[in-house]
Amino acid sequence: MDDSTYARLQDQLQRLLGLDLTAYKQQQMRRRITTFVQREAGGDTSAFLMQLQKDAALLAATRDMLTINVTDFFRDESQWDLLARDILPALTVGRRGLRVWSAGCSRGQEPLSLAIALDRAGVLASSRILATDFDREVLAKAKLGGPYSREEMRGVPPADLATYFHETPAGMTATRRLLGPIRFAEVNLLRDQFERSFDLIVCRNVMIYFENHVKSDLVRRFREALAPEGLLFIGATEALLGSDLAGFQRVGGNFYRRVSEHRQNVA
Ligand SMILES: C[S@@+](CC[C@H](N)C(=O)[O-])C[C@H]1O[C@@H](n2cnc3c(N)ncnc32)[C@H](O)[C@@H]1O
After folding, report:
1. Nearest protein CA to atom 2 of ligand 1, as residue
2. Measured in angstroms, how far is the CA atom of residue 201 from the centroid of ligand 1?
């Protein structure tokens, strides 16, 4: 696909879907779109765009392809072990509950994993979890707490299934106890204002798709949204390096603590 065809396609997709595609890594995005147009319309961009105007299912599939909603319960298990073993015990000293944000929560597995982790730490009932995504469809499933297929449930330890989920004909659905402390909302991380004073912000496997300057800006805004000493939990391939580390201190694994910039310099 030549540059001008791609620019036209990007423009139209942006208009139809309300997505700012320029924020996402150009090469990756271009590869995905090219493969998709090849599969859906034999590589004919004009035919694809025409079809997109009148075919709601194709529009939804295109949105899905662009937003990449892949997720899992307790994704990257070692990081959740670290959360349970070191991070939560330190964070909850003298506290009855935490304020947590799952940013880019997809179909809900991440905020539900957080709810289970907080329950095991004995602070779920007094905690509040904000779970956000900009994709309305995934958010609708997340709000309902499922249903999740057997395949989707594979990250949940068998011993926890009966404690935290109901079996329904369509799959497993989260219990009220798990869903109660979670508030779901539509938030576009590139555009919308953030709430503040979070003890823990979890944003994993989202920034990896953004251009570097977009990631840097987002990290700076996450820092502002954290309470002093609050923690940012990111994806395995999203390490904070160079100037992105300003005002943070890595505490282990994929966890970074907000510190005053002065303190970081002294350390
Ligand atoms: C690969 S999933 C990651 C889900 C979960 N955090 C995890 O690690 O399993 C990326 C999610 O980020 C969301 N996303 C992408 N761009 C976004 C944006 N600008 N604002 C809010 N959510 C976004 C997508 O809709 C998708 O649900």
Report:
1. 69
2. 14
Report d(CA 260, CA 136) in Å as an integer.
36
pLDDT averaged over every residue in the chain:
94
What is the span of the domain harbouring residue 26?
A: 3-67
Atom of ligand 1 nearest to the CA of 109: 9
Are the C-beta atoms of residues 86 and 120 closer than 8 Å to each other? no
CB distance 69 to ligand 1 below 6 Å: yes
- 62/175 same-domain check: no
Contact between 109 and 102 under an 8 Å Cβ cutoff? The reply is: no
- Residue 263: pLDDT band (50, 70, 90) is low
Q: Where residue 253 sits, what CATH number does that domain have?
A: 3.40.50.150
Of 182, 83, 69, which is closest to residue 133 (Cα–Cα)? 69
* Interval 210-226: pLDDT, tens: 999 999 999 999 999 99
- CA–centroid distance, 136 to ligand 1, in Å, is 11
Decide: 205 in ligand 1 pocket, CB within 6 A.
yes
Measure the CA–CA gap between 47 and 121, rounded to whole angstroms: 54
